[in-house]
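Why show two proteins at once? Because comparison is the fastest way to build intuition. When a single record is shown, students tend to memorize it. When two are placed side by side, the eye starts asking what differs. So, the first record is below.
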Amino acid sequence: MKIEYATQEDYQFIIERDKHINGLLIRSKIREHEIFILRDQNQEIGWMRYGHFWDNIPFMNMIWIDEDYRGRGFGKEVVLHWEELMRQRGFKLVMTSTLSNEDAQHFYRKLGYRDSGCLLLEDEPLEVILVKKL
């Protein structure tokens, strides 16, 4: 698998799958190098996007791996790649979150993330906030 910064050529692949973000924000995140595209043999298979909590703590917003490629370690690989990049940039802490009814919380805990709090929005499952010291 290859991990690269997404480019405008990857926009269509992302927008067709990412229903959690406005298309204009995807373009902005691509320009700011806040989306990684995952490729297997030059085929797009997923992405990871991030931002910054309180404008200074890297926050992984979303990982997406196409169904046919799940369970092969690609998610773990992109998370570790991102963490190393954040470490190189001088960050000491990273964050992410997941809904309490999603299995992703177990994935993050296996990678060393620890529960740090939660957010409860009306008519939504509990959002679990996870952090990891780098």
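Second record. Ask yourself what differs from the first in the token line.
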Amino acid sequence: MQADLIEDVLCGPAQMFGGSRLGDEELIQLACEEFKGQSFCIVRNWMMLDLLLSDTQEREVRKQGLQPTVLFINHAVFDNEARVQTGDGFITGYQKDFHGCFFESEDALYILAGRGARKHVSLPAFQALSAYANVGITA
């Protein structure tokens, strides 16, 4: 059952999104200049996951000034605070803001490079993906 949920998240239909078209080195240089003093990470092969939560769970998330959306990242390009290694994948915390190719969670700004996707995901599917990806994010 969990394998089916994960497969649907990773391989099922999704809305395609485009991030920055700049190359990695150019993005790193620009981000280091523009976001000096701010925690940021440049990512590729990403997917925004809009979590389908119960009304109570969604109210709790929104009460914190956040949206019930997380970013599933397959490839970290650069993290200015070295929290993740280049090439690592992970899931962010809930969305604080989203504008163009910038996704901000509670803890960092993520610069979305290249193509990505966005889709709605059930809580059981998200939990299965989190367990599979071995990350500690839970809704």
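One difference worth noting in the second protein: The first helix runs from residue 2 to 11.
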